[in-house]
Design a protein that fits this description.
CATH class of the largest domain: Alpha Beta
Helix content: 40-55%
Radius of gyration: 21 Å
Strand content: 5-15%
Number of strands: 12
CATH superfamily of the largest domain: Type I PLP-dependent aspartate aminotransferase-like (Major domain)
Shape: globular
Order of helices and strands: HEHHEHEHEHEHEHEEHHHEHEEEH
Structural class: alpha/beta
Number of helices: 13
Strand order of the largest sheet: 2-8-7-6-5-3-4
């Protein structure tokens, strides 16, 4: 009989796996599936990025393994992008590390920071993979609940002293998935001081840095920690440049944390194909009109979706960032987000993400990913309204 590691117990099938099965049943039953459950952009990658990758393909020098020193041009581009956007000086040799998507960074960093039994302070609700990396490192998760009355920001003073004594890292992510909240610079300054006081590493997952509306400008955590004393930030090209499938991200921040993450990464993998990094360099240094197109597109979708939902009787707030709508469930579903989403997709073909899948404090909400054209989103809302009325 085969035996498996105990750590897999924390990685068992979750509600998103249940949703995948429900979607499969809906399709098998002939439903026209409108999938609003996955935050994967349906927009195309800008042509100048694809052209840079295409030019690399015939070049045999790009076909081999790519080690750290071969990523220098990408690291320089990333450092330049950060400095231009946030006014923070970044050393591309010691303060930047390429990643195979930012999720690689959030999954591997706990291996460099936590000893078995140490606590990581995570947002609840929050992105599920943040907890996965902690469990793989043998750590414990302390969930910091997020509530609308606190603008979906954690109350740091509520963290118990015994937990803080055993904690080694705090993970934040704003603009926030799933709640769409933006954290002000003052909150990051408070979080930096808190982490310095309690000897915590401050991790900021920052995939939606550009995907904000009405002129909002979400801060980088490094603006609150310009000396990079305790902080590391993860950025991905998946959202801003529609490069989700290319798996390109990077870490920027404290040199010791970058070095530690690099040690873990070196034991697990190399880097992406050089041609993909050439495309990423073109993204960061080339025309940025495509980023504005992404923002404008999701703003239009947000407006169409929320307006139709409100008009049909489900009042939800207008998100100021991300590609999602975070909606509080009406009765009788207010305490059964999983049941709502499974019944909804089976009855109508509209798939959404149950709030409970993002953490205990997410119960009572549902997340819609606005990854379809406005007409398709409006059709989804009409189906939702019929389901609720029935």
């Amino acid at each position: 009989m085969l035996h498996f590691a105990d750590r897999l117990q924390s990685l068992q099938a979750n509600v998103f796996a249940d949703m995948d099965q429900a979607k499969a049943r809906a399709k098998a039953a002939g439903q026209d599936l409108i999938d609003l459950s996955l935050g994967s952009s349906d927009l195309p990658t800008p042509p100048h990025i694809l052209q840079a990758i295409e030019r690399s393909l015939p070049d045999a020098s790009t076909h081999g393994y790519l080690l750290f020193h071969g990523t220098r041009m990408f690291r320089q581009a990333a450092a330049q992008w950060y400095t231009q956007k946030f006014g923070i000086a970044v050393d591309p040799e010691t303060e930047v590390l390429p990643l195979i998507g930012s999720q690689e960074g959030t999954a591997h960093l706990p291996l460099a920071v936590l000893n078995p039994g140490d606590f990581a302070l995570l947002l609840d609700p929050g992105y599920p993979s943040h907890a996965g990396g902690v469990y793989l490192a043998g750590g414990q998760v302390y969930p910091m609940p997020l509530y609308a009355e606190n603008q979906f920001l954690p109350v740091l003073e509520d963290i118990p002293t015994p937990v803080l004594a055993q904690a080694r890292m705090m993970v934040l992510s704003y603009p926030h998935n799933p709640t769409t909240a933006i954290a002000p610079l003052s909150f990051f300054q408070k979080a930096v001081g808190f982490c310095q006081q309690h000897n915590l590493v401050l991790v900021h997952d920052f995939p939606y840095a550009d995907l904000v509306f009405e002129g909002a400008t979400p801060p980088s955590v490094l603006q609150a920690d310009p000396e990079k004393q305790v902080s590391i930030e993860f950025f991905t090209l998946s959202k801003s440049y529609n490069m989700g499938g290319f798996r390109v991200g990077y870490a920027v921040g404290n040199a010791d944390l970058i070095r530690a993450l690099r040690q873990v990464k070196a034991a697990v993998d190399f880097n992406q194909y050089q041609g993909i990094l050439n495309g990423a360099i073109a993204a960061l240094t080339g025309p940025q009109a495509g980023v504005q197109t992404v923002v404008d597109t999701f703003r239009q979708r947000r407006d169409a979706f929320v307006a139709t939902l409100n008009r049909l009787g489900w009042q939800v707030p207008v998100p100021t960032a991300t590609m999602y709508s975070w909606a509080k469930l009406p009765e009788p579903w207010a305490k059964d987000s999983i049941g709502f989403c499974i019944r909804l997709v089976e009855a109508t073909g509209v798939a959404a993400s149950p709030g409970a899948g993002f953490g205990k404090a997410g119960e009572g909400y549902v997340r819609f990913a606005l990854v379809h054209e406005p007409e398709r989103l409006q059709a989804a809302v009409e189906r939702i309204a019929k389901f609720l009325n029935a």
